[in-house]
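Quick one, T. Sequence first:
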Amino acid sequence: MVTRRAIFGATALAGLGVLIGLPRRKPALAATFEVTHTDQEWRAMLSPAAYDVLRHQGTEAPFSSPLDLETRKGVYNCAGCALPLYSSATKFDSHTGWPSFWQPLTNAVATSTDTSFGMDRDEVHCKRCGGHLGHVFTDGPKPTGLRYCMDGVALTFKPA
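Structure tokens:
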């Protein structure tokens, strides 16, 4: 049985691997997106950390994002294209160190299979720009039982 602790440990190890410079995958999505830019344009538009996560599937260190502790009402948007992704009404404290939600907004995200670091995970992408946001797991709260574990640097928050 996979526990939250095992997932957190594996994710922390994956994050550590990213931090020490293990090679990363390039975006593998074959889809065409509404918002596209050249790599140089993405690099100029985004902070280095957001560029690493959104465009190269990086992972921010756990407990490093202020959005993990954000409790105000509002909407979480894609840091790459400003598409609204998650409502604060679906945010919960997963105790993993990353902002977590039990459901995205309608038509906001897409998923693909991620087999990096010897694990099979469902990777979550922005549906409009294809940016990597994080992963979704099946250990979340009711009503969906899902935990959308997002990298805070891939998001921006707009208070209601």
